[in-house]
Amino acid sequence: MSTYLIAFVVSDFKYISAKDKKGVLVGIWARKKAIEDGQGNYALKITQPILEFFEKYYNTSYPLSKSGMTMIKNKTEPWKTGVLSLTERRLFYTIRRRLPMATILFASHSLPSDLCGFASYVEYLGADYAEPTWDMKDQTILYDLQRAFAVDSLTSSHPLSRKEEEVNTPSEISEMFNTISYSKGAAVLKMLSEFLTEPVFAKGLSVSLTFAFGSSVYTDLWDHLQKAVDQTPGVKLPYSVHEIMNRWILQMGFPVITIDTRTGNVSQKHFLLEPEAVVDRKSEFNYEWFVPIKWMKKQQVQDQLWLLQKSALHKPMKVSKNEWVLANLHVSGYFRVNYDLGNWERLLSQLESGHQVIPVVNRAQILDDAFNLARASIINITLALRTTKYLLHERKYIPWEAALRNLNYFFQLFDRSEVYGAMQAYLKKQVKPLFEYFGNISSNWTLFFVLRFTQIIALSLACSTGVEGCRELTRNWFKKWMQNPHNNVIHPNLRSTVYCNAIAAGGAEEWNFGWQMFQKATVAAEAVKLRSALACTKVPWLLNRYLEYTMNPEKIRKQDATSTIGYIASNIIGQSLAWDFVRANWDYFFKMYGTGSFSFSRLISDITYRFCTPFELSQLKRFQKDNAETGFGSGTRALQQAIEKTTAKIKWLAENKEPVHQWFLSESA
Question: Which range is the signal sequence, renumbered to this chain (predicted)?
């Protein structure tokens, strides 16, 4: 074991513990009050079944006699020591979106691979086993695949595995622990599992665990998986695991697959958000991939297709005018899909007449692919906008979240222009049925886990677009809390949305109350909700004061400063304030976070994400030039990406602003 993985924790924490069926002692260590309030109970309860699941999945025993989790204010992660230390809010919450801790712990103990994405992928398997009603496996499309697509479609991306000469300095090492490493890694491994089949994938991993405590690289894993394939009748691959996966690991980016249902022609092309961008990084594979395509025709699942060259004819994909083709079924592959216009029209017709026929994750895929294809000038922007019309009838979380993530791009571009009013009117019409649906089935707005995220979207979007009754609802809840601070009647599911809307609608009184509650918060998750909501105010002097607080560790902890600035930058009033603040204090922020903090690149992304004008681009380039001597450390790539994204937005706006405006006007009339 590497010496840097040894960890000691010296504290006055309390703990709770229990042994699993095989005698492994699981312990949760934290502040005395957190333990006494029962905040560790769920973590203790859920760790044991997750460990049991992975023992069965990998066909091997957990390698240690104990597993400890401890909350430490400044998170560190000595992964393979038998003790996992992490921030309090990630260990303790009663209802949560993800269950990464125990799964990462087990996977990091066991998997002999240098692919960071392994833990990100397998955490969903453990979470899905422990909480099967939460639909965690489907959510990989949101939290890994679509996240990875966003940065892997830029020329400034990088391969999952990089050459030694590219990684020399601490900043370059820090840059490796990013969205590509974790989210793309998880998405590519999910694709591998899909085309191998889950049993073969698990069998290969099980064999690889016999080398768990030795040195290894990802190519060793390909060897074990290939042996599992060779030993499994009925599983046939067009090339070896090495040959297939090298194209996904050793070159950056991903393809867009174009299917012409008039002829059956299937082709691939390296997908770039800026189609005229020049790719400087060379690839020995010429940016072509071996692509496994699962697909369906009308409502019938078809045999998997492998696209092994630039273009090929696949006659079963030639369909009549009454049929449609849907590719990347269940979003099993790491690629986008485009169709001929006729097939797009038939898919849109199916969504509006009976969207349940299309799997829920593919409804999200259609939305996300269409908007990004439009951003890349591959399809017309109005075609992408039309994919949102069926949302009047959608009640599932994943499609709504995919839609709002893409519409958020429109918010960035248009919330300072005349387009915004028409856009708000259209979205108000679309979300009103969803808001009323939750109001009708649950008068007190408390639902079980599987629906809570859709419920949050309904409340948040309804309030921001002015649906009647929404803002009054949130203001009244918040007012009741202000009148009785010791009795918060707002359901935990809805607090982030309620806090933000109430503080945005209020003034100094509401903000100061929120600040007091933030300072008194004893539950970390509650503190995060309040810290984020405080950035929602529309009062400039409050936002400027809040920015100043980020430089005072007595008010905002050091590890929370960059995310707090990001929250403020997401506010249309706060964006320019945050940008000016960071520029004015760049030397301070670089000294505090620039060389070793993974959050530093996120700070640069957050304060520049609204940039879309030539003036803002010139400011960005000036900022790069003025601070060249100080440098940008682990944020260097993020700054390059910000310039690239801003350039693409300027070009896109010049071509699309007017048709987008006219479409929203016509659909909101």
Answer: none
